[in-house]
Amino acid sequence: MLVEKIRCSFQIDRTSNTEGSPRPFTSLVCAFFYPLVPTACHGAWAIPDALAEASVAGVKAAALAGSVVLKRGGKALDAVEDAVRTMEDDPVFDAEECSALQFDHILNNKGHGAVLNTDGEVELDAIIMEGETLAAGAVSSVRNIANPVSLARAVMEKTDHVMLTSRGANLFAESIGIPTLPTDALVTEEERKEWERCKKYIVGVKELFNSQWGHDTVGAVALDSFGNVACATSTGGIRNKMVGRVGDSPIIGSGGYADNKSGAVSCTGHGESILKVTLARLILFHMEQGRTASEAANSSLQYMGERVQGGGGAIVVSPTGDWTATFTTDRMAWAAIDGDVLHYGLNPKEEFKDTLK
């Protein structure tokens, strides 16, 4: 009889299995939040102190939402969707840059977390994928949808395609009864103010990543009791981005990938850099060569930094339960469930534990 035993590692592999035999487990779910807030001095990214506690609380809630699905015998695919929806609905994950007073205001704002492009519109990207059949769905530049991850799943299950974009994605959403919400329902008042401030400047890529302007990404990976893995990633993109700009998040093999033969990955970071090295698939390639999840993630992120000078992070799970959360930036909020213990962290080489009641 399988017993639940989920282990977590954070930049240090503590779960590698040299014999390659399966570990005893019934389920694993991990979620992350990663807001890009570039710092001019070194080009890395960090979650501001004013958001640290709430960011960790948000990923805890997401991991718990996914764990509920798995503990009742549900599928990894359902778990990652629920985890990501929880974070999509949390306005904290739009609050990349704020003072404590501004953050207090955001917590009382009913808007979802999204950023605005140069035209003051919301364009969202998402991917979801399951590892048993490699079924996948994605949307890019979809406008004014509350939960793009669920629309991505609908693309996977209700069409013959893998990705829909822009107007086509919105037409599909309308055809299956997913409502389009007004921009004000998706954007916090603080984001609107930041967009007004940012649009006063002519901003290129270099200026953007040497400022305190940011964007956010949320994601999840899961392993269920059937041995299936899944991933999901969702983002609002970069504030003041060009209309139609698409980063790594919805691109299969870059923002996420899932295959029962190797594992599931959800990535985050500088989208253009991740696209150039197809980060999610690169990590799984290294795992297929016999590396642990931690070794594969660290090697791939190091390669991305050296080859294209890009920073980022990834959460990874193998079919045997080998797990890691790794990043080359200042901070990444993450959380995972281990039996009756919730593991979480924010800073490098940091891991805390809470006993679940």
Distance between the termini: 24 Å
Tally of helical segments: 11
Mean pLDDT across all amino acids: 80
Structural shape: globular
Give the helix/strand class. alpha+beta
Strand content: 15-25%
Number of strands: 13
Plain-language structure description:
There is one protein chain. By secondary structure, this protein is an alpha+beta fold. Helices cover 32% and strands 24% of the residues. The protein has 11 helices and 13 strands. It has helices spanning 49-71, 76-88, 100-107, 148-158, 166-175, 183-186, 189-198, 205-208, 271-277, 279-288, 293-308, and strands spanning 28-36, 123-130, 136-143, 163-165, 215-223, 229-238, 256-259, 263-269, 312-317, 323-327, 333-338, 341-345, 352-355. The strands form 2 sheets. Strands 4-3-2-6-5-1-11-12-13 form a 9-stranded mixed sheet. A 4-stranded antiparallel sheet has the order 7-8-9-10. α2 (76-88) runs antiparallel to α4. The longest helix has 23 residues, at 49-71. The radius of gyration is 19 Å and the shape is globular. The chain starts with 27 loop residues before the first strand and ends with a strand. Residues 1-26, 36-45, 95-111 and 204-214 have low confidence and may be disordered.
